[in-house]
């Protein structure tokens, strides 16, 4: 009998430190831009425009990261289903059986 090797992907989990660093980095970057907007020597409407642009960029980046993650997860699921089908076909195949 053939031995089957399954390549079960290891579930990747982020550590608490990495998660905290990502949140801190995001907060520092957004805070820095906010402070820069407050101290910028321009008219109020230009500050407002820049603030809205920063918010739009931030929400777009979050949405993009979610879409990329969702697509990657969907590809992994399809790959696992295809692998399971192939393993079933190989398990049922008997090259010495005559029909």
TrEMBL record:
It comes from the Bacteria. GO terms for biological process: DNA damage response. One of its GO terms (cellular component) is plasma membrane. InterPro entries: YiaA-like, YiaAB. The chain crosses the membrane at residues 21-39, 45-64. It holds the Pfam family YiaAB. Keywords: Membrane, Transmembrane, Transmembrane helix. The keyword Cytoplasm does not apply. Residues 18-70 form the YiaAB two helix domain. This is YiaAB two helix domain-containing protein. It comes from Streptomyces indicus.
């Amino acid at each position: 009998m053939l031995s089957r090797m399954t390549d079960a992907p290891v579930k990747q989990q982020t550590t608490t430190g990495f998660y905290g660093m990502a949140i801190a980095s995001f907060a520092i970057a957004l805070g820095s831009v906010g402070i820069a907007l407050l101290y910028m020597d321009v008219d109020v409407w230009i500050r407002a425009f820049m603030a809205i642009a920063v918010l739009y960029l931030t929400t777009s980046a979050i949405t993009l990261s979610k879409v990329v993650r969702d697509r990657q997860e969907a590809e992994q699921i399809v790959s696992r289903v295809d692998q399971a089908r192939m393993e079933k076909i190989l398990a049922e195949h008997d090259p010495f059986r005559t029909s």
